[in-house]
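Hey, can you fold this one?
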Amino acid sequence: MRCRFADIEAVENRDCLGFWSITMRLAFRENIRSGILYLFVGGCTALLELALFALFVFCFNWSLTISNIAAVLIATVTNFFLNKNYSFRSSQNFWISALLYAALFLFNLVFSTLVIEFISSAGISPVIAKALTMVCIVIWNYFLYRKVIFRVN
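Sure. Predicted structure:
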């Protein structure tokens, strides 16, 4: 049986495609793994934040602003360490990640505080207002964590 040059190229291309196929499958699995862990960590810290917010407002009678700031701060520190070390396994410099995370934290804090104050002034429960702001933040945070803050070098 004769081996033609075109047949050799086809075999080499399949090997190359096989390599890329395996690489893409592994990358896809890593994205799925980090996405699931992000949702788990985020869900746990979101429940922590919401519970702390309710505790501060209804048990300690703190203002909505102080309650939100305290709840967000505690949940954010917890979330940073869990996401950096487990969800995204980031190899990026700790201080760069921390600085970027802090900038996003400040934006999220201002956003959530203003929106909670606005929505609750319309007569909606502050806890519902808090939950709505958290949904928005979860969505944009995943993309920023994955691509910017906890990037794997």
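The two ends are 48 Å apart (CA to CA). Let me know if you want another pass with a different chain boundary.
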